[in-house]
Amino acid sequence: MYQTLEVLLVVILACYGVYRLAQDVISAFRVQPGPPVSMLIVLKDRAQDVEYIIRRLAAWRKHQWVQLELVVVDDGSEDDTAKILEGLQQRIPFRLVALESHPKEESRTVDQGMISGLLHCHNSLVWLVDLRRIPTGLQAEKVFRVFFCQGWR
What is the pLDDT of residues 62-97, one digit of tens each? Predict the structure, then answer.
């Protein structure tokens, strides 16, 4: 009788082990979505490369595991950046925040573009890209090369 119970116990434990192994294998192949992330791009007078940035991010967003919300803040551009962004917004889903052009004030300590953009982000993780601080001669392709080539892991 004890031998029968021992064999039965071994069979039950073996079945449980096979079940757990199958669960581990299935979970290894299942792709879990990443955390929702907001990408905040603050720019001004970037008409030469804003279309590249938005189109590249939209294409990249479709093939990655991370849930990316795109928020673009136009900090009072004086060139065609606002028109280009409005045209792109018709075809590509992103949140556009357009601010009025403001004169240079030395006493201004609050970055209105960044604050406005952060208020429009809905996720707790925010990746901030401030293209106003980058010289206009440096193309956005160089800025985003590491991000696009390696992907966000």
Answer: 776 677 889 999 888 888 888 999 998 888 888 999
Q: Indicate the residue type of 101.
A: S
Cα–Cα nearest to 64, from 132, 127, 134: 127
H helical segments located in 30-136: 50-62, 81-91, 112-120
Residues 76, 99 contacting (CB under 8 angstroms): yes
Amino acid letter, residue 35? P
* Span 42-54, pLDDT tens digits: 888 888 888 888 8
Which amino acid type is present at position 115?
A: I
Q: Which CATH architecture has domain 36-150?
A: Alpha-Beta Complex (3.90)
pLDDT of residue 133: 79
Whether residue 120 contacts residue 71, with contact meaning beta carbons closer than 8 Å, is answered with yes
Cα 33 from Cα 64, distance rounded (Å): 9
